[in-house]
Specification:
about 325 residues; alpha+beta; Beta-Lactamase; 8-stranded antiparallel β-sheet; 5-stranded antiparallel β-sheet; 9 helices
Length: about 325
């Protein structure tokens, strides 16, 4: 009988330990999930940076080469002038589409640059095929040169004498804004002018003695979300812009549906997500203070009260100076 009581006592103790352990959830599996995802993004985006910088260097070398007369004539046959003076290739199956907008007067030298730029196609295609998350590869220059892969119908979307250097995807890579002359991430989501879907970009300048062009990779938000994030995670930049999020956070942070709003930037008509998608500028002080906790916290997790109490798991992604976050309700 005494032995049975001892056994029963130990069973009760073990049950209590198990129950107490369950109550003190340390979220080990959730932390690992966030850390693993952040590491994948860090590695993939670092590879993208290396890749775009190599393309930028290659383009500089291409512009220094001399095409043979035969090669020049073979490429020249693919292009024609539109009625409004844009020089473009009307057939772009399995290749990029390219044009000169006429922003600068099109002379023989500028034509040669357009034809030479076609040589970069191989690297455009290789990058597009290597990285599934790339939606579009392109280059644009201050003299009105534009090249896009996969090839699309550009002529209807480009105005005669269009100045590509006045768009954010060009000037943010120039020497004034990018003194290191390397890849730069544009992490404030914007409406892609072709697909009308939300996107972010990675851009890199190509230099010779001067800025030749800007190379760009575009990424649709919906594809990044499918590739990397679980439904209960979100990605926010260090300046507060939500890059990728699940709809469940709209209610938590008081956000509108991103498909129904945009911030219209009057300069060149660029469309961005507005301050309503910036945690640092959120109208709710509790959300602003949460963001402050995210960027200053040195621990992997902390608790925070919004509409309810949450465990907040955070991991920094250095390559894009952003934070991957998962919030778990404790109620």
């Amino acid at each position: 009988m005494l032995m049975n009581r001892k056994i029963l006592f130990y069973i009760v103790i073990l049950v209590l330990i198990a129950l107490l352990s369950g109550c003190g959830n340390n979220y080990t599996s959730d932390i690992k999930e966030v850390n693993d995802t952040a590491e994948i993004i860090e590695n993939d985006f670092s590879l993208l940076e290396n890749n775009i910088n190599k393309i930028a260097a290659s383009y500089s070398e291409i512009m220094e080469t001399k095409l043979s007369e035969k090669d020049m004539n073979d490429i020249k046959k693919k292009y024609k002038y539109s009625e409004n003076g844009i020089l473009y290739n009307p057939i772009y199956t399995d290749c990029s589409s390219g044009l000169l907008s006429g922003y600068k007067e099109i002379d023989e030298l500028l034509e040669e640059r357009l034809y030479k730029s076609e040589i970069i196609d191989k690297e455009f295609i290789d990058s597009y095929n290597k990285f599934a998350i790339i939606d579009q590869v392109y280059l644009n220059s201050s003299d009105g040169l534009l090249r896009v892969y996969p090839g699309v119908e550009l002529i209807s979307g480009v105005s005669p004498k269009e100045a590509f250097s006045e768009f954010h995807f060009y000037y943010l890579a120039d020497e004034e804004h990018n003194k290191e002359k390397k890849g730069v991430w544009l992490l404030r989501p914007y409406r892609d002018p072709v697909t009308q879907k939300w996107a972010v970009s990675l851009i890199a300048p190509s230099y010779s003695n001067e800025l030749l062009c800007v190379i760009g990779f575009d990424f649709l938000i919906e594809n990044l979300k499918k590739q990397y994030l679980e439904d209960d995670m979100f990605l926010v930049s260090s300046d507060g812009n939500i890059i990728i999020s699940d709809d469940s956070y709209n209610e938590i942070f008081g956000l509108p549906n991103i498909e129904s709003i945009y911030f219209y930037e009057t300069f060149m008509g660029e469309m961005y997500s507005g301050d309503s998608y910036n945690l640092k500028k959120n109208k709710d002080i509790r959300v602003r203070e949460l963001f402050d906790e995210i960027i200053k916290n040195d621990v992997e997790q902390f608790t925070y009260k919004l509409d309810r109490k949450y465990t907040v798991i955070v991991e920094k992604i250095d390559v894009i100076d952003s934070y991957l976050i998962k919030m778990i309700s404790m109620d």
